[in-house]
Amino acid sequence: MVRGRAAVRYLLSCVSCGLLALVAGCGATAATPAPGRTAPSFVLAKLLDTSQTVSLSDLLHTGEPVILNAWASWCQPCAKETPELVQAANQYQGRIQFVGINMTEDDKLAYARRFAARHRVPYLLLADLHGKFSEAYHIEGYPTTVLIDPEGRIQRVQIGQLSPSSLKHLIRMALQDRAATSSAT
């Protein structure tokens, strides 16, 4: 009988993990870098021209907060949140940098490029060709969105699809960070 109970507990834990992944996003399970910590540096290829690279320090050089969005072309929550991100990127251009990072190690460049064209993504798109970003940021599910202040500190990590209200909250945080940084200089 103990074997049966152990098997039931194991099965229930597997079901619980699966439900968590569904609620959070495509495959979400583990921790990500914490707010208040320095964002891990990275150098990634541009999605549309993989011969060119962009680093986190390049992004921070502008003095704007950065919203990084890790996504994959096959991820339904990613597709659902992209129109909101596109609208926000257009609205807050010059005040917040939006950067999409395709998890190319789990995707294909051609599919990612088609996704970007279909959604008319206006912001910078990068490709995590070898999983280095995913590893450094402990990306376990898509989408994952990270707000980084102009000083390079993580302010917020959102695993799973951004709702319109959570995106608005993220933008308010980014603009507050920018105002605080501007008044400090």
Would you summarize the structure shown here?
With 185 residues, this protein is of the alpha/beta class. It is built from six helices and seven strands.
SSE layout:
Layout: H1 2-24, E1 43-46, E2 53-55, H2 56-60, E3 66-71, H3 76-91, E4 97-102, H4 109-118, E5 124-127, H5 132-136, E6 144-148, E7 154-159, H6 164-184
Parallel strand pairs: 3-4, 4-5
Antiparallel strand pairs: 1-2, 1-5, 3-6, 6-7
Outline the structure in words.
The protein has helices at 2-24, 56-60, 76-91, 109-118, 132-136, 164-184; strands at residues 43-46, 53-55, 66-71, 97-102, 124-127, 144-148, 154-159. It has 185 residues and is α/β, with parallel strands linked by helices. A 7-stranded mixed sheet has the order 2-1-5-4-3-6-7.
Number of helices: 6
Amino- and carboxy-terminal Cα gap = 68 Å
Characterize the largest beta sheet: strand count, sense, and whether it forms a barrel.
7 strands, mixed
Mean pLDDT: 85
Q: Strand order within the widest sheet?
A: 2-1-5-4-3-6-7
Q: Which percent bin holds the helix content?
A: 40-55%
CATH fold-level name: Glutaredoxin
* Number of domain modules: 1
Q: Can you write the helix and strand succession as a string?
A: HEEHEHEHEHEEH
Write down the overall geometry. Answer: globular
Task: Please compute the radius of gyration using only Cα atoms.
Answer: 18 Å
- In CATH, the architecture is 3-Layer(aba) Sandwich
- How many beta-strand segments? 7
Work out the strand percent: 15-25%
